[in-house]
Amino acid sequence: MKIELQDKLISKYPKILDRKILLDGGIACGDGWYMLLDELCQHLQFNTDHNNRKERGNEGRYPQVVAIQVKEKFGGLRFYIDSCSDYQNGTISFAESMSFNICEDCGSTDDVTLTDGGWYRSLCPKCRGDLPLLKDRQFSKKVLDSKLFKKNREK
């Protein structure tokens, strides 16, 4: 992701996207997922700020989510964090699954498919160009159902 877009997200959500923590790899995905990450962080921060109140009996139930790593892997978004509530975990999982339907380069949702040009990517026809399509259309489902993916989500 372009530095300008990363800086915009980090400025907007400093509690989630700590510059020091993300310094090593930054936000390692295409610009097309900017809006997805913006919406994800907005929902996570709203949940923490508004549902974690003592008067509601929820104090401590919705921890402050801090991203350790944000990147593309196997054509989908990965948003690694330290700890979260079940609701926050579900929000992250939903955004990760939505990324397979959003072009990583331009953000289009038109006919997005996984490519297999040596590196799996979720791209629209315009951004895909001559890259070969992944033959197994169920790849994203396999990734989401994999033991490794579930193990990372349980953290």
SSE layout:
Layout: H1 3-12, H2 19-22, E1 27-28, H3 34-51, E2 67-73, E3 76-81, H4 86-98, E4 113-116, E5 120-123, H5 125-128, H6 139-145, H7 147-153
Order of helices and strands: HHEHEEHEEHHH
| Overall mean confidence score, pLDDT | 84
Low-pLDDT parts are: none
Please give the count of helices: 7
Overall number of structural domains: 1
**Class by alpha and beta content:** alpha+beta
Distance between the termini: 25 Å
Main sheet: which strands, in order across?
1-2-3
How much helix is in the residues? Answer: 40-55%
C-alpha-based Rg, rounded: 16 Å
Overall strand count: 5
- Give the percentage of residues in beta strands: 5-15%
Coarse morphology: elongated
Describe the sheet with the most strands. Answer: 3 strands, mixed
Can you give a write-up of this model?
This protein is α+β, with helices and mostly antiparallel strands and about 160 residues long. The protein has one domain. The protein contains seven helices and five strands. The strands form two sheets. Strands 1-2-3 form a three-stranded mixed sheet. Strand 1, helix 3 and strand 2 form a beta-alpha-beta unit. The longest helix has 18 residues. About 30% of the residues are buried. The mean pLDDT is about 85.
